[in-house]
Amino acid sequence: MKITIVGTGYVGLVTGACFSEVGIDVTCVDIDEKKIENLNKGIIPIYEPGLEKMVQRNVEKDRLHFSTRLSESLEGVNVVFGAVGTPPDEDGSADLKYVLQVAEEVGKHMNDYVLMVTKSTVPVGTAEKVRKAIRKALDERGADIPFDVASNPEFLKEGDAVNDFLKPDRIVVGVDSERAEELMSKLYKPFTMNGHPVIFMDIVSAEMTKYAANAMLATKISFMNDIANLCEIVGADVNMVRQGIGSDRRIGRYFIYPGTGYGGSCFPKDVKALIKTADEFGYSMEVLKSVENVNERQKSVLVAKAMKYFDKDLKGKTFAVWGLSFKPQTDDMREAPSLVIINKLLEAGATVKAYDPVAMDEARRMLGDKIHYAKDQYDALLDADALFLVTEWPEFKFPNFKVMARLLKNKVIFDGRNVYDANELKEAGYDYYGIGTKVS
Question: What is the pTM of this model?
Answer without folding.
Answer: 0.89
